[in-house]
Write a structure and sequence with these properties.
The protein is α+β, with helices and mostly antiparallel strands and 183 residues long. It is built from six helices and six strands, in the order H-H-H-E-E-E-E-H-H-E-E-H. The longest helix has 30 residues.
Length: 183
């Protein structure tokens, strides 16, 4: 059995005392001894396993959220557009499984800035994934229940990639149009 923190602290103290070292007090040893006595060997870490699980669950709950309205669900992903809004996808059922799309939000975001024409030109380049397509300015994919999570991730990443690519080009263009020196 591995040594407990209390045993290790006691051994360190005994070795130090044996060498005539000056030890002010046994607070560290007492702390580990109390910890060992109250929690036992399986749980000597001050952060219990349940506390870690609760903290992670609380953090993850905020990363992905979903809202349901009738036969339609909206999933907000932990991916954010350049304007700071989360990528939100619409999930509906169809005859063969599920339809996952962005409800046209990627196009509307770009069109709002006067970049609607960039959507079509760049969408073809981004949508090289054979399961994702663009129909009437909507990024869409279809999935069965087993692939729904992957499809939600793929469509969300495609939306984010498209916006990022257009914004990056816009940034490069605006930087190159800026004067080099300010006199």
């Amino acid at each position: 059995m591995p040594y407990s923190p209390a045993k290790i602290a006691n051994r360190m103290l005994e070795n130090a005392k044996g060498k005539n070292a000056v030890i002010e007090n046994d607070r560290i040893s007492d702390h580990y001894r109390r910890l060992w006595e109250t929690r036992g060997p399986q749980d000597s870490n001050p952060i219990s396993l349940q506390t870690v699980a609760d903290a992670v669950n609380e953090a993850v709950d905020g990363l992905v959220s979903s809202r349901h309205f009738g036969h339609t669900s909206y999933v907000s992903l932990p991916m954010f557009g350049p304007d700071g809004s989360p990528i939100t996808l619409r999930v509906t059922s169809d005859m063969t499984g599920f339809r996952v799309d962005d409800a046209g939000s990627t196009y509307r975001e770009l069109d709002r800035l006067g970049l609607g024409r960039s959507f079509s030109a760049n969408a073809r380049k981004i949508m090289d994934h054979e399961d994702i397509s663009v129909v009437d300015h909507i990024i869409v994919a279809f999935a069965d229940q087993g692939d729904l999570g992957r499809t939600i991730s793929d469509v969300g990443l495609a939306c984010w990639s498209l916006m990022e690519k257009v914004y990056r080009k816009l940034g490069d263009t605006s930087e190159s149009a800026m004067p080099i020196g300010l006199d």
